[in-house]
Design brief:
Helices cover 0% and strands 49% of the residues. The chain is mainly beta. It is globular. An 8-stranded antiparallel sheet has the order 1-15-14-13-8-17-4-3, with no helix packed on it. The protein has a 7-stranded antiparallel sheet with strand order 2-7-16-9-10-11-12, with no helix packed on it. Strand 9 and strand 10 form a beta hairpin.
Length: 219
């Protein structure tokens, strides 16, 4: 994991013009018991999601997405996150298909900084390299008793993912300008993938809620 930081500027990180609600679809993946929804707001969505998890060999969650072909650079601010479980998760999803067992990469944020298994902090990168196989995760390098390197900072928890060929790089930020690299992963996903916010409850009987704002596709 790298701790490098970079600053975006008007010249090298101009928002694109692709964001319109009509350009995005939303769907429940994996038939969660409680249906989810996504309400468009200005450059974002209020998302409700059910589902048991995005993990192991198949997923259940709510997904807001559009198709991307080739390289991309996208970011979003998570303004608020009301979980239904310690392991409720939301974030940016990059996914080959809408099948529950699809290969994917997700840059995750949890609702707080409580310890979770190997994770001290709120951020995590996870991926399923081959459809139908177990997910893997890249956890924060910092371990207790040090404070988390990537803490939750709602309403200013930013996530950003870039794709260059088969290399995916995730960055976190608290202002949308200064970005710290979290991790990178080489993953042979298809050229055309589905990209956007995702939310899973981790409790099949209670929905989670997340407010995604300032979704941006950088040029």
């Amino acid at each position: 994991m790298s701790s490098s930081t970079f600053t975006t500027s008007v010249s090298d990180a101009r928002p694109g013009n692709a964001w319109l609600p009509a350009h995005f679809a939303n769907a429940d993946i994996g038939a969660p018991e409680l249906p989810g929804s996504a309400k468009p707001v200005e450059r974002g969505w209020d998302v409700i999601g059910g589902g048991v998890d995005i993990w192991e060999k198949a997923d259940q969650f709510h997904f807001v997405y559009r198709d991307f072909s080739g390289d991309f650079d996208v970011a979003v601010r998570v303004e608020s996150f009301t979980p239904a479980h310690l392991y409720s998760k939301c974030g940016l999803m990059i996914r080959e298909s809408l099948h529950a067992e699809s290969a994917h990469l997700m840059f995750v944020i949890f609702a707080d900084n409580q310890p979770r298994n190997n994770n001290l902090g709120a951020y995590e990168m996870q991926f399923r390299a081959i459809a139908g196989t177990d997910c893997q995760a890249i956890y924060p390098a910092v371990r207790p008793p040090a404070p988390p390197e990537f803490p939750a900072a709602f309403p200013n928890s930013w996530l950003r993912v870039t794709r260059q060929g088969n290399r995916f790089t995730a960055f976190g930020s608290t202002d949308g300008k200064q970005w710290k690299q979290y991790a990178e992963q080489v993953l042979a996903l298809t050229s055309t993938v589905k990209v956007g916010p995702a939310l899973t409850s981790h409790n099949p009987l209670i929905s989670a809620n997340a407010a995604f704002r300032e979704y941006t596709e950088f040029q």
